[in-house]
Design brief:
Elements (H helix, E strand, L loop, with lengths): L1 E2 H6 L4 H4 L4 E5 L2 E4 L6 H11 L5 E2 L1 H8 L9 E5 L10 E5 L6 E4 L2 E4 L1 H7 L6 H13 L5 H10 L5 H8 L9 H12 L6 E7 L5 E9 L4 E6 L7 H16 L3 E6 L6 H18 L1
Parallel strand pairs: 5-6, 11-12
Antiparallel strand pairs: 1-3, 2-3, 4-5, 7-8, 9-10, 10-11
Helix pairs in contact: 4-5, 5-7, 6-8, 6-9, 7-8
Amino acid sequence: MFTVAEAAALGVSRRVLQGGRFVQVTPGVHRLATSAMTFDMWVGATVRVLPAGAAISHVTNLRWRGLSMRSETPIHAAVTDWSRPERDQITIHRYIGQLEVESVRGIPLLTAPRTFVDCGTMLSVRELVEVGDWMIQQRLATLETLFDYVTRSHLDGVQRARRAMAFVQPGAESPRESRLRFVLIAAGLPEPEINTDIHDERGNFLARGDLVYRSRKVVVEYDGWHHERDAEQRQSDIVRREKLESAGWRMIVVTAIDMERPDEVVARVRRALASRDSAG
């Protein structure tokens, strides 16, 4: 991938670029027709046409960091000055004042806290909880820095980001696990412990649980790999579950298919908690 100027420096004229050997990615940037267009190439092409001081923003920023939310395109970019025509596959966001920028794998990105707030204009509260949990898990931010940023900020998206912060917690190990926790809490169920160890009455380690209701001995597990485990892992899961059940714990396993019907997931957990209240 290269700009018109870079091609000219190698002796490739604009007329040659218009031939069948090359494809225009965006005005001023071309690639070989034999190369497949990828997300990384879209980001690289966008950065090449952005003015100095600009940065990749919003969900494109998240995807570049490793969290896929929404589609790969359009590419979202933040600028303080843009006088060029709008371009296909690129969404320009105009900002006032100096941008908070850091470099990640050679690409200028807005900082994680700013991106968390900006995504409040595009994502739901549930999705923002997934983003916040993930940022903390990836050490892109802490609960304190995110909370401080949304408290001080008056930017677009901050109201939704503030609502999400009521649910963001350290300790989540996957966005889908965060989604499950949000669904349960938003439905009015108690907030569980996150990824914590479970022991028997003698203090012997039994298991590590995703979402743990310790006082009622209920553990809720998100199983995103139910059909991809090998025989050894499946056997380990069976033994783990037997240990928990022998110690009086109730385990509820939630799959991706289950999460397509979140009300039913909530009902299952609610019944399990209520049955433990009745038993007590």
